[in-house]
Amino acid sequence: MNMQANHKTRGLSFIIIFCILSVVLFFTLTNTVAADQTIYKEVTVKHGDSLWSIATDYKDETPRLTKQAFIDWVKNENGLVRDQIVPNQKLIIPVKKNK
């Protein structure tokens, strides 16, 4: 009977520790993403824009990135699955904000 109580206590401790770690991880990731977004420019997509044209517009400000690397970064940071963007959509781009 005592062994069964030990297993319950151990299981409950595991659950509590897991929940605490999950909450800490969530807040850490949320703060990191928010911090990253504040240092990069946000652009609003205009009619006729494409990821390729935006990469071309900012090529002088991102000399270390190829156009494809720029596009891949934008897709990853903005959660885009396809290359399709629409007017008035907000995109974070790999160009640091001016202070």
Structure description:
The protein is an alpha+beta fold. The chain has one domain. Helix content is 58%, strand content 12%. It contains three helices and two strands. Helix 2 (51-57) crosses helix 3 (67-78). The protein is elongated and about 70 Å long. The N and C termini lie far apart (66 Å).
List keywords for this structure.
LysM; cell cycle; cell division; alpha+beta; two-stranded antiparallel sheet; Cell division suppressor protein YneA; 2 strands; LysM_dom_sf; elongated
SSE order and pairing:
Elements: H1 2-39, E1 40-44, H2 51-57, H3 67-78, E2 90-96
Antiparallel strand pairs: 1-2
Helix pairs in contact: 2-3
In a nutshell, what does this entry contain?
Keywords: Cell cycle, Cell division. The chain is built from 3 helices and 2 strands.
Rounded radius of gyration (Å): 22 Å
Largest sheet: 2 strands, antiparallel
Strand order of the largest sheet: 1-2
Shape: elongated
Number of domains: 1
Structural class label: alpha+beta
Any low-confidence stretches, pLDDT <50, length ≥5? Answer: none
State the helical fraction.
55-70%
